[in-house]
Structures are given as structure tokens and as C-alpha cells.
Amino acid sequence: GCDKILGLMRRRYTTAIYANRIAKIRSLMPDAFIGIDVIVGFPSESEEDFVATYNFLKNLAPAYLHIFPFSERENTPALTMPNKVRECDKRDRAGRLGELCEELHYSFCKQWSGSKGRILVENSVKDGKMFGYTENYVKVQIEADRSLAGKIVEVKLGDIDNNCTLSGEVIN
User: Fold this and answer.
1) Residue 41 and residue 92: Cα distance in Å, rounded?
2) Nearest to 83 by CA among 8, 6, 12
3) Cα–Cα distance, 148 to 130 (Å, whole number)
4) How many angstroms separate the CA atoms of 113 and 169, rounded?
5) pTM higher than 0.85, yes or no?
6) 146: buried, middle or exposed (CB in 10 Å: 19+, 13-18, 0-12)?
7) What count of other Cβ atoms lies within 10 Å of the Cβ of residue 77?
8) What does pLDDT average to in each consecutive run of 10 residues of the chain (172 residues)?
9) How far apart are CA 166 and CA 155, in angstroms?
């Protein structure tokens, strides 16, 4: 989310190119679950660079962030780069992005409350519930009915819990 760091990482895209591609995906698939891998703490990443990344991701509003603190790898140019980011700063930044991810994921999933969807019902039962995911990867829980395991069923989507799981009622 910061052109300076993307350049240091030798990425062949900029934030503008990336944002345009996300916009294109959304124009073709408005319900798409968009997840983004994010590396924090790359050498030379300043607090200002991180804030630029944070704000870029917040405005882009993906459904999920998969966050990785930078770690050195043998035989890579980053191994010898100056201005290493302290581990405590990497952890702090990853934590802040983790909180943003929770907000973004909750917002994405909540928008489907009150709508209908189709889920593929998983096999396991927990506390009288079975789970499945919609076509755009929203987790749904339904009352347990083992005869539905492995089947695609239509559901009315209800309330969302703190784990971003929607309640669902099977529609026959």
C-alpha cells in the first residue's frame, strides 16, 4: 500500500495499478470476496509508510487481510538491505492491521444479513450447528442436519456474530 516500499520489494505494480485492478474485479463481480496478502516491516518501512499502507487498505476495503511480518530469507536482496524494522514495530503494525482486518471482514459479511444465499454444508457438527460458506466465502451456521452434509442448499441469512458467522435458515 506504499509505492516506496513496493519499489524496494521490486514489485511491478503501484498502488494506483493495484486499486484499478480491484475496481475492475468489483465492476465484474460486485459480490467478490477480496482477500489481500500484506507484508509489514519490510526494510526501510517508516511509520509514515505503514500509515500510507493502512489508509490505502482501509479505503480499498477488501473482505480480508492476510498479514505477514517481514522475515529475512537467505539469498534475497532484502537480506542485506539497511534500515531493518524492529521486531516490536513489526508486531505492532501487524496487530493494527489485524484490527483493521476484523473491521473490514465484519463489514463485508454483515452486508449479506437479510439476503438469501447458497452454501456448501460441511460435514462436522458443533453445538448442534453445521457450517458452510456462501459462493463469496461468507461463513454461515445452520441447525444440524447430517443429511445436508456435502450438499449445496439455499439459506436465508440472518444475524452475524462476533466471529463474522451469519446465522442461516435452510429454505426448502
Assistant:
1) 10
2) 8
3) 9
4) 12
5) yes
6) exposed
7) 10
8) 94 96 97 96 97 98 97 87 94 98 97 96 95 96 96 97 96 85
9) 11
